[in-house]
Amino acid sequence: LTVLAGGVGAAKFLRGLIRCIDPAKITVIVNTADDDTFFGLAVSPDLDTITYTLADVAHRRQGWGLDGDRFHCLEALKRFYPDGGWFRLGDADLATHVYRTDRLSAGARLSTVTAEITRAFGVDSTILPMTDYTVRSIVITDRGKMSFQEYLVKHRARPKVEKITLKGITGVQAAPGVLRALREAELVVIAPSNPILSIQPILAVEGVKETLIKRDGWTVAISPLVGGRAVSGPLVKLLDDVRHYPPKALSIAQFYYPFLRAMVIDRRDWARDADEIDSHQIMPIASDLVFSTAEKAAAAARTMLRALDVR
Amino acid sequence: LTVLAGGVGAAKFLRGLIRCIDPAKITVIVNTADDDTFFGLAVSPDLDTITYTLADVAHRRQGWGLDGDRFHCLEALKRFYPDGGWFRLGDADLATHVYRTDRLSAGARLSTVTAEITRAFGVDSTILPMTDYTVRSIVITDRGKMSFQEYLVKHRARPKVEKITLKGITGVQAAPGVLRALREAELVVIAPSNPILSIQPILAVEGVKETLIKRDGWTVAISPLVGGRAVSGPLVKLLDDVRHYPPKALSIAQFYYPFLRAMVIDRRDWARDADEIDSHQIMPIASDLVFSTAEKAAAAARTMLRALDVR
Questions:
Q1: Among all residues of chain B, which has the CA nearest to that of A103?
Q2: Shortest CB distance from A40 goes to which of B75, B94, B98?
Q3: Strand (E) positions, chain B?
Q4: What is the DSSP code (8-state) at residue B153?
Q5: Nearest to A300 by CA among A223, A234, A198
């Protein structure tokens, strides 16, 4: 079973999925287009959110960062970076970035380093960056061009987005294992992540979309919308800004159209969305998609697996 | 006034000196041969000890590191570096190393970065690394070859030292401002540091010894010995291991012989050492050299300045 994942939304789903399926049988392919460099340190927010969540050490309430982490180093960094500190890196979290930076400087590939980090955290699933190369989401807004983290965290997703481009994406190779994990999986799940910011970059990596189109098994997406609102992040605003899409299941499905065969939508959206999805030859599956607890996410995962007859 | 300095011993003296002389008139040339890389971060222990002490933020008891610092990041780093963590880098201290590493990776010189760091800490004195290039003390012991920090911190200076070599020293240029600070100073003070580990590397930098020999003003050393023991560090053991020198003032003076014109020795050593020093055309100055408080260091600095008629 292979999952395409962004950050917090995907992590919350995965926290449930590993209660239904042996974690060792799960491969997660993670977006790295929102990676960034802070204080010279290589930060991979989505990879870390997934890793910390699967290791059960993530911060419960906020979803990212480490539970119980402090910010002494960040406070001290502000002495040197008066404009820094808006990206909240905790003391223990920083250790991950220091290690990643150290290894990358020594010439190691991001996928190798990611395997080392997940192993150090005792994660049994395989977590793969979409690519070992540097791809960056550049957000073009009414307040200028900015990195994704500047848009999301520094400016709290307030600027109006005109366009999102992927710097470095042209012809970029998938990380080792990515295409095989897509080809050989019985089921590919697109996590309830932002299709524009988190999943599109993965699909833009050389060979990913082609492999998804060619494969025989199911590809299912979990809708990141509940009752016309995003479970987390600026999805609704972005759908409108960038595509003028309304906040409904079909708007999400359209990003995955050529290979999507099923979609889990929230019960609250069923009446409005199910028939429309179905009319596009995508099987709708109803579930509760507010993953406030791991058990709720597990229930949705179980519903999905049962509907698709995967065990 | 220019001071040649190592780490903790020098810092304790400087803490007193800045109470007698306008800190802005003091240039400190600091040993960088015990710099090292931990977790991929560029650590300059002597530069930082001097900076933190002059900024009055150093850890009171231990002399190095920042007062009140915690070790959450270091604890988390052990997850990735099972053999690491013996070099105690605090959370706030790490910020300095992260910044230094970031700037050096961007191509900045160590002297530039050091100026930025001292400015950020509000230090009024000029702190210069001896060189912008990488020089490393390699300690050859009965337990093998090791870096200086491995010898001092990891192995607690226990191995028997056969030899100390300076990797990268050949023809290495002094950092900008170093030779001028030596040439133009009214007084050059060699801080009570380890002559073998801390001062010899500075003297080995191209032009330093020559400039000291040629200059007209006083050059004075503060003895790092009190009653035949080192104020801090493995000095006595090293003098014996490396040179078979006894722990007395003349053994220190011999490292500085061609340019040393005065030496401050502890009152406890006066009866034994003063005449011997004097017979080598080095003016002995008596003071109390246990710098347990800044006021005691200031008293010694005042005694020295008065004896040399420097104000």
A1: B40
A2: B98
A3: 2-5, 27-30, 36-38, 41-43, 126-129, 136-141, 144-147, 161-167, 187-190, 218-222, 225-226, 229-230, 262-266, 283-287
A4: I
A5: A223
Condensed to tens digits (0 to 9), the pLDDT of residues A114-151 reads: 999 999 999 999 999 999 999 999 999 999 999 999 99
Closest to B233 (Cα-Cα) out of B95, B31, B26, B1: B31
Q: Do A41 and B81 touch (CB under 8 A)?
A: no
Distance CA A19, CA A269 (A): 26
d(CA B201, CA B136): 9
Asked if A67 has any chain B CB less than 8 Å from its own CB, the reply is: no
Whether residue A17 is predicted with pLDDT greater than 90 in this model: the reply is: yes
Assembly ipTM: 0.91
| pLDDT score, position A60 | 83
Residue A51: which of A121, A134, A139, A151 has the closest Cα? A121
Q: Structure tokens of A275? A: 């028939």
d(CA B263, CA B284): 5
Say whether residue A95 is in contact with chain B using an 8 A CB cutoff: yes
Are the Cβ atoms of B80 and A39 closer than 8 angstroms? no
Helix%, strand%, coil% for chain B, nearest 5: 40, 20, 40
Closest partner residue to B92 (CB to CB) among A69, A76, A96 is: A76
CB count in 10 Å sphere of residue A228? 15
Chain B residues closer than 8 Å to A119 by CB: none
Please provide residue B50's backbone torsions phi and psi, each rounded to the nearest 5 degrees.
-65, -45
Q: What integer pLDDT is reported at residue B90 of this predicted model?
A: 96
Low-confidence ranges of chain B (pLDDT < 70): none
Is residue A125 within 8 Å of residue A28, measured between CB atoms?
A: yes
Closest-CA residue in chain A for B70? A72
